[in-house]
Amino acid sequence: MKILYHSRSQRTEEEEKAVGAMYCEKMEELLKKSDFVTVVVNLSPQTQKLIGAKELAVMKPSSLINIRRVGTHAVETTWVKVETMAALNDEQPPNEVKIQARPDTHHALHPSRATSNQYWFELTREFSSVALEDEVTELIMEKPYILADIGEKGIYQCFAPCIEKHFTTISYQKFAQKRENFADKIQAVFVWGGPIINHSLLQSLPNLKVVVNGGVGVDHLDIPLINSFEVKVCNTPHVVDNATADIGMSLMLASARKIVQGHNFSKYHESELLSESSLGNDVSGATLGIIGMGRIGYKVAKRAQGFDMKILYHNRNRRTEEEEKAVGAVYCEKMEELLRKSDFVMVVVNLSPQTQKLIGAKELAMMKPSGTLINISRGLVVDQDALVDALQRKIIKAAALDVTYPEPLPRDHPLLSFPNVIVLPHMGTHTVETTRVMVERMVTNALAALKGEQPPDEVKI
User: Fold this and answer.
1) How far is 125 from 253, CA to CA, in rounded Å?
2) pTM of the entire structure?
3) Burial class for 409, CB neighbours closer than 10 Å (0-12, 13-18, 19+)
4) Which of the following is catalytic: 166, 314, 319, 426?
């Protein structure tokens, strides 16, 4: 084991080397770094309640604390949660379960809670030095609190065990109702469609260390504001790439081959004959223009290559010749060239002030009249009013959108009235596999931040 120690007086260098121990001048440093903490001090006015709420909060969430051979009253009476698998529901912990650190130690569990996952122990600290001469009591630290919605309004319930294995979750509604009970405890916020992280919320969470976003896009987060409270921001990049590329290809195929219209015909047909308007277009051999050739755009190109498509792309930075050859992509320095030549235009860019309404009336007018616009980036990248106008005037043939503004669109929005438009409610990453990995990545980032380590996916601007 790696051994750290804190004492009034530092041991000699020879003594430290003999046991491989490293001196921590400040006890806080030892508490933050240790997986196991052993308290071995004599009782004095200086050591009474040496370990209290402040010190316990400094320790790692996964730490164990051992009280060995001490009649010191050094550890303050506290409540700790053991093996919690669900969010805290009780305002006050029940006292049916008690551990007394004496030779006849017993665990008395109330029958009504025998199958509960929420066990609370009151640790009695009226110890005598004789009674604890050879005894070690292990105390499992309470799981850190996070603000997160799980269920209908947030992260799906099926992914709850992944989160509750490491954290005690407080819903936004519960926090709003009993803010004073939880404000000091919450150390992380999980953003999954909500809430709005504003100055008021940040100011109310004095111990907040990290805001973790489910997904790549963080345009809805005021990162400078959050950072000004010394709070980190993390997202979940990379894990969404395949699912998002898949939805892009799905939209292109569904639009080109009129999949939705065919499905509706099967459900509602009044004759057995397909109309001429049901004719679709081949994807194989067509030209796909990709605007934004980052990780996701490149994965789209790989998939399109399997359909023998001609691939054009426009990007801030040109890919290497080797990367272009690998997917058969041709670089267009100017976006206008790509728009004029493509049968399908797929937008795969991050939202920024530079990309907001990147595709407007001017750009739509440059597309082929037989062209289809596909947007899998962010709704605000496309000027929706201009798109409605282009469709009404048949400037372009069709559109397929995974993203809009707002999301979902109001049911009476003009885009939903076109038979040649497919609109999804932002389902690009909406798969069991990808969502599970996203949640796991959120947990990884939060745990790192709470341990004082560098989160793997911190967003810096």
Assistant:
1) 68
2) 0.68
3) middle
4) 426
